């Protein structure tokens, strides 16, 4: 990593550097655990973990690595042998990269609400619709696209996954620049023709195909040895971002002077507030799994705002202004915090997952639900009972 690459990432919000990605590929680090004969580096779980930690400490924009690895594993498991044989070596050498086509404009975090339509015509499929928040699509060659192939089947059925070449006629990628400084994309599909050979899994069995990458993203299941080396919390990224902002605040507290000549760090109240944020970070980092994902986001939102309140007007100065604190890290972190409640699924979705899969609570019954199982509580009774 160089200052030039860091500055490019700050300015563009691309979360990607092709130069860095290809350099990693030359060392076999894109698919680091693959054997060398497949283009990997043959790293065991411990060495792969060390590599991941070093990339994080360097501030490398490598979000595309985890996405590409998840999709590559799915292509290997569900794709046709000739498709896997063609694409996977290119994944290892860095020339093929994948993005995720899940979210739709009116679907929110409900992945199974997919409406992008795929209709079969002979050996091809014609795809129409749009996806939102397809991050890094502008730097990828294929999108892992969840489509609706039979709207008459139940919600979690009737879906099929395709690996769609992003240079196909009818694909349009439109940039969305977010408040937090990152770029994401809306992707439109207008009569996009995709050969059936790019289908992953069986027709109308798309939910089975997407489950593996979703579970990995949500830190559910996976290789036991690799999992044992991972961060305890599924929201570590957010806590580490807050840690960098805390370091910036410490620089301010030690280096700036008040009218009486003292440093802010000399004030016990300042030390107490900074110390509380340090405790919050540690507590979030050791909160396991999905609970950690929620807590890290909550802590980031709360404490990023507290840092701005503590530091004052200079905390809102952004990089590259010469008066910015630690390259504007507090201002950047505060904006980034606002996205932490929705990235990779909203915190409300994760709270539901915790309730159902960790606490084993029953699914809630909401007034206005369209269908109820025989013997279940009616909406009116549910409301009455809650009173």
What is the helix content?
40-55%
- Per the CATH scheme, the topology name of the largest domain is Butyryl-CoA Dehydrogenase, subunit A, domain 2
On the 0-100 scale, what is the average pLDDT? 89
Number of domains: 3
The CATH superfamily of the largest domain is identified as Butyryl-CoA Dehydrogenase, subunit A, domain 2
Uncertain residue segments: 371-387
- The gyration radius over C-alpha positions equals 23 Å
Q: What is the number of E strands?
A: 8
Order of strands side by side in the largest beta sheet?
1-4-5-8
Helix and strand content put the structural class at alpha+beta
Number of discrete helical segments: 13
H/E element string?
HHHHHEEEEEEEEHHHHHHHH
Kindly, what is the distance between the CA atoms of the first and last residues, rounded to a whole number of angstroms? 58 Å
At the first level of CATH, the class of the largest domain is Mainly Beta
Strand composition percent: 5-15%
Question: What is the subunit organization of this protein?
Answer: single chain
Give the second-level CATH assignment, the architecture of the largest domain: Beta Barrel
Coarse shape: globular
The biggest beta sheet is recorded as: 4 strands, mixed
């Amino acid at each position: 990593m160089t200052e030039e690459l860091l500055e490019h990432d700050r300015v563009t919000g691309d979360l990607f550097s092709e130069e860095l990605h290809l350099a990693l590929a030359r060392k076999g680090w894109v698919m680091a655990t693959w054997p060398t004969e497949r283009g990997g580096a043959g790293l065991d779980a411990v060495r792969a973990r060390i590599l991941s930690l070093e990339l994080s400490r360097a501030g490398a924009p490598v979000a595309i690595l985890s996405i590409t690895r998840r999709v590559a594993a799915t292509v290997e498991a569900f794709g046709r042998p000739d498709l896997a044989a063609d694409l996977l070596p290119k994944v290892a050498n860095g020339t093929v990269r994948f993005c995720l086509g899940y979210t739709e404009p009116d679907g929110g975090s409900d992945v199974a609400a997919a409406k992008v339509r795929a209709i079969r015509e002979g050996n091809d499929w014609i795809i129409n619709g749009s996806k939102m928040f397809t991050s890094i699509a502008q730097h990828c060659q294929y999108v892992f696209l969840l489509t609706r192939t039979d709207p008459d089947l139940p919600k979690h059925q009737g879906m099929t996954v395709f690996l769609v070449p992003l240079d196909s006629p009818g694909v349009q990628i439109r940039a969305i620049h977010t408040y937090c400084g990152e770029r994401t994309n809306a992707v439109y599909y207008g009569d996009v023709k995709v050969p059936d050979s790019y289908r992953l899994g069986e027709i109308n069995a798309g939910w089975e195909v997407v489950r593996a990458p979703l579970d990995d993203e949500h830190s559910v299941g996976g290789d036991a040895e690799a999992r044992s080396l991972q961060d305890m919390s599924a929201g570590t990224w957010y806590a580490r971002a807050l840690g960098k902002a805390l370091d910036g605040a410490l620089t301010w507290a030690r280096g700036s002077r008040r009218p009486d000549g003292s440093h802010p760090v000399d004030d016990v109240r300042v030390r107490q507030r900074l110390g509380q944020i340090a405790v919050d970070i540690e507590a979030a980092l050791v909160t396991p799994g999905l609970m950690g994902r929620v807590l890290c986001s909550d802590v980031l939102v709360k404490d990023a705002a507290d840092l701005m309140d503590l530091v004052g007007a200079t905390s809102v100065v952004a990089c590259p202004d010469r008066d910015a604190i630690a390259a504007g890290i507090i201002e950047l972190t505060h904006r980034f915090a606002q996205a932490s409640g929705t990235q990779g699924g909203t915190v409300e979705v994760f709270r539901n997952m915790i309730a159902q899969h960790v606490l084993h609570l029953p699914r809630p019954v909401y007034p206005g639900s369209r269908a109820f199982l025989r013997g279940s509580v009616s909406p009116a009774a549910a409301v009455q009972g809650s009173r």
